[in-house]
Amino acid sequence: MSGQDVDVAAIAAAARLLEQGQLVALPTETVYGLGADAENPAAVARIYAAKGRPMDHPVIVHVAPGAELDHWASDIPYQARALADAFWPGPLTMILKRAAHIPDAVSGGQDTVGIRCPSHPVAIALLQAFKGGKGGIAAPSANKFGNVSPTTAQHVRDEFGADGTVAAILDGGQSQVGIESTIVDLSRLATHGPVLLRPGQISADAIAAVIDSVPAAPDAAAPRASGTLESHYAPHTPVAMQDSAELLATLAQLQAAGRKVALVHYSAFPPAHAEVQLPSSPDGFAHALYAALRSMDQAGADVILVEAPPRGGEWLGVNDRLRRAAHGSSGIVHGLLNHHVPS
Ligand code: TXA
Ligand code: MG
């Protein structure tokens, strides 16, 4: 199976594995997820073990189109139903007060739950086959904790293929959006208003157009979200991000110093040791970004240099992910220029 085709037999088999408490990797329009039955605490615990993720990081529950929100959440504000009507199926996750039966493992011990209805046809078919469409699939991105999220089935095999912890990997082609869903917290509307926990393709303005209130950036008291850790989505090779003109100079200096540069850019640049040119639209850039970071991570370079994208509204999501990918690499360019290349 490849592309967006729905292989009914493979999906039925995957649904049975989920019902038995196994892990199944599934394609979504954002990134691939590592799924388990959200109402089976032992199955959800397997996700944490497979990812090497701390137990207090909550996971998103994926539901089928038309799912009963009241089964998963309580005290649901009308704004949540309006956003679901406007953006589901699609790349928006809402944080709501959780229903009483949601396992602690799903909510990371918090009194909230993250819910989203994905739009990828394979994800939808799986959700409809699993528990007769009434279940929820808890699924973080299908990568080891801190790594770049997978946007192809091969990326998932690269992360988990060998260790036997994932019972099935459904192939749904390359994820269309390419970066993780927008997360908006509606669980404390009365006191905090809507809060944007993670930017994504669905912008704060698009949300505001539906609920008449612009989501605020998170404050220090916001619930923990691993996607909000400073260092995350990171390749193993150090990443540095610079504006175009500065990058051009840095590239020349590093090359003159004998350094191997892997370049991720969208405008014209001289050749580097390895490079990927991304589309210059925000959606095109996001779509191709993680595959570019993964392939540049394999290039044996000293550093991955990324041409900083524009800062504006639609670029918020990719800027956020790149800032995290580059976190902890500050000083890397300086270091490479000021130490001799080991011979
Ligand atoms: O696009 C996506 O959202 C992908 C696909 C697979 O759906 N999933 C994803 O999952 O990115 P993950 O676990 O890698 O990131 C989910 C984020 C985490 O930062 C997590 O902490 C946050 O959502 N989250 C989940 N439930 C939450 C809750 N109850 N309160 C606050 N944050 C929550
Ligand atoms: Mg993740």
From TrEMBL:
Catalyzed reactions: L-threonine + hydrogencarbonate + ATP = L-threonylcarbamoyladenylate + diphosphate + H2O
Ranges for domain YrdC-like: 8-202
Group of enzyme by EC: transferase
Listed SUPFAM superfamilies: YrdC/RibB
EC number: 2.7.7.87
Signal peptide: none
InterPro entries in UniProt: DHBP_synth_RibB-like_a/b_dom (IPR017945), Sua5-like_dom (IPR006070), Sua5/YwlC_C (IPR038385), Sua5_C (IPR005145), T(6)A37_SUA5 (IPR010923), TC-AMP_synthase_SUA5 (IPR050156)
Cellular compartment(s): Cytoplasm
Keyword check for ATP-binding: yes
Keyword annotations from UniProtKB, A to Z: ATP-binding, Cytoplasm, Nucleotide-binding, Nucleotidyltransferase, Transferase, tRNA processing
A Pfam family reported for this protein in Swiss-Prot or TrEMBL: Sua5_C
PANTHER family the record matches: SUA5 (PTHR17490), THREONYLCARBAMOYL-AMP SYNTHASE (PTHR17490:SF16)
Protein family: Belongs to the SUA5 family.
Task performed by this protein: Required for the formation of a threonylcarbamoyl group on adenosine at position 37 (t(6)A37) in tRNAs that read codons beginning with adenine.
Protein name as annotated: Threonylcarbamoyl-AMP synthase
